[in-house]
Structures are given as C-alpha cells and as structure tokens.
Write a structure and sequence with these properties.
Helices cover 27% and strands 26% of the residues. The protein is an alpha/beta fold. Strand 11, helix 8 and strand 12 form a beta-alpha-beta unit. The longest helix is centred in the C-terminal third of the chain and has 14 residues.
Length: 351
C-alpha cells in the first residue's frame, strides 16, 4: 500500500438530517472514520461519480414506504476506482472500475434477505467507500465515470424491467426520469417500439428531439386522464407487450388495461401518491388479460454483470440521458433538483 493510500483513514459523506420540515436542509456533510485496515475480502474505492435517484429525494423527505436507517448516507448509484484490496481479494485488482450492487444481499436473485443501500444500510454519497468484493461489479471501460454512474440502480432496474422483451415488440415507458431514460436506450438497442408518456409536452419534445430515430410515440397523460386508450390506439387495440410502470396506485389499472393479453407489467416505482381506489378492479383485470405483474427492486449482482456485458457488447453511449452534473459541495441543491422533478434523465454528482 502506498504512503498516500495509507494516510486515507477518514471520508466525507452526506448523511440525512431526518428533518422533514419544508425548506430545511435534508442532508449534511460529515467527516467520519473509514474501516481501516481492510479486512481480508474488502476493497477500498475512490468514488468518482454518484447518480441520484428519485428514491434518494423521497427518503430524504420522509416519503419512503419502508423503514430506513436513521441519519443514513444517501445514494445507491456510485462508481469509482479500486485503490486498495484486502489480502484475500481474488476477483478484483488495483485500478479496476467498480460499482456496488444496490441490494448487497441480492447476488444471484435467489437470496432470501435484502439490504438496500441508503435504506437498510448506509448509501454511497461519499468520497471513499469500503465493500466486500462479492457485491462489486466491474464496469464497462468505454464509458466515462458520469455515464457509468447511471448503471447500478437506474440501469439495472431498466434491464430487469425489460426482461423477456423480443425484437419488434412494444413497450410503454412512463416518465422521463433516470430509469425511464435508461430503459429507452435499452429498448432502442433491443429493437423495441417505444411509447413514452409524461405530463410535460416540453419534456416529451426534448426527448424526441434528442433521440429522433426511430420515432418515439408520445402521450401526455395530464391532458388525457384516459391515457390508456391512447396506448391502445397506438397498438391497433392490442396493447403493448411490456409496461414500465412507474406510478403505482393511480396508474396501475390503466397500465394493465393497455397491456396485451399475456403481456408484462413491470412495477418499478410508486410516484403517484393517490389511494388505491382502483383496487377492486385490479384482480379481475389481471386475470382476464392474463397479465404477468412483477415487482422490480433493481436487480441482483448477476443482473448488473449481465447488463455490463450487454453494454460492453453494444457500446451504447449514455451521455444523452444525463440531465445535469453537480459538484460534491452542491449535493444538497442537486437533491432538491430531483425532488422538484426538474430533471429529464439522470442527475449526477461528480467527485
């Protein structure tokens, strides 16, 4: 270990204030010790970029539907370089570009437990991180740090949500946030016909101008509360093969109604805060249309490895789904930007 690395014993990290009063800071910068020296299978990472998700803003504002660790570090999309390894590390070497999986218990998809970054355990918005090698995925080398930072949560969620799609099929992608934009890039690469929905004509226009070929069909669900009928019109009454469902209680029934019989609804979010008034219709619609309704909780470490392999093979560039980049000292403003829903794509903090 070099003398420079030997002197790294602390880190700077953003922990939640857990003060949910409107207008108050939601995170604060702290300096705290690192678990040094490294144990046998641990890896020390110098963080280069952290991508924020709506989940980070939601947790910081007290809206997460699951319990979270008090005053935890936010963030679950971090990428960085391996700068030190424990004596028994076998799968990684110094200089490797890596990211931790969002669920550090979910390695193969069959584990019974769960441990989500920024919820069940500390997140990743820090300048140094220490993880066991088994939870770290090796990143594509062709992507810069900012683009690569979108992979662990948004990328893996989109990858998991689109599983089962075949070339020529159709997908409804709801929203223009990070997961939606990553799903759009993957759908294009997979040869899928894309229908994109948003409440903002300006956001839809921006995406269509940036990703103009092949054309994207668009729907403004704010202008038409019965937006599922527009989806059916776009698909000649059949419905889409897959829905990337991001709303939850207020949108799930309509999503099911515009999914083809035997199609898939991938529930990736819960942005709609409405009550489940449609609940009595959910089960009959599910059965009648033979819909596969599956919950997407990001994915396993194996899923992340598969996505990284697919990206490396296709060389998909992700620069056009970056909304904005922020400095580490501006993390609070970046978090507020996400909470206010101003972004189209990913908001990234560069270190």
């Amino acid at each position: 270990m070099s003398a420079e690395i030997a002197n790294i014993t602390t880190r700077r990290a953003y922990r939640r204030t857990d003060d949910f009063t409107p207008g108050t800071p939601k995170i604060e910068l702290v300096t705290e010790p690192l678990p040094i020296p490294l144990s046998a299978t641990k890896v020390l990472i110098k963080v280069r970029a952290v991508a924020l998700n709506y989940r980070d803003a939601n947790i910081s504002n007290g809206g997460n539907p699951w319990p979270v660790t008090p005053h935890g570090i936010i963030g679950n999309d971090a990428v960085g370089k391996v700068i030190a390894i424990g004596e028994q590390v076998k799968t990684l070497k110094l200089g490797d570009r890596v990211a931790p999986n969002t669920d550090t218990e979910n390695l193969t998809g069959r584990e019974p437990g769960r441990s989500w970054l920024a919820a069940d355990e500390d997140g990743v918005l820090a300048d140094y991180l220490v993880y066991d090698e088994k939870v770290l995925g090796r990143l594509p080398t062709y992507l810069d740090w900012i683009q690569a930072s979108t992979i662990p949560c948004a990328g893996v969620t989109a990858w998991s949500a689109l599983k089962g799609a075949q070339i020529g099929q159709s997908v409804l992608i709801q929203g223009t946030g990070g997961v939606a934009m990553f799903a759009l890039k993957l759908a294009r690469a997979m040869g899928l016909n894309v229908i994109l929905s948003s409440s903002s004509d300006s956001k839809l226009k921006s995406v269509c101008e940036q990703l103009s070929e092949p054309p994207i069909l668009t729907i403004n669900y704010a202008k038409n509360p019965e937006w599922h009928e527009d989806v059916l019109k776009h698909t000649h009454g059949v419905g889409v093969d897959i829905v990337l469902e991001n709303g939850g209680p207020g949108t799930l029934l309509r999503s099911m109604k515009c999914t083809r019989r035997g199609g898939i609804v991938s529930q990736v979010g819960y942005l709609d805060r409405k009550k489940f008034d449609d609940a009595p219709e959910i089960l009959p619609t599910l059965i009648d249309r033979r819909i596969i309704l599956r919950g997407i909780n990001a994915g396993s470490k194996a899923d992340m490895d598969d996505l990284n392999a697919a990206l490396t093979a296709t060389r998909i560039k992700l620069d056009d789904i970056i909304d904005s980049t922020w400095g580490f000292n501006d993390a609070g403003m970046a978090l507020r930007h996400v909470w206010e829903g101003k972004q189209v794509g990913k908001v990234v903090i560069e270190l």
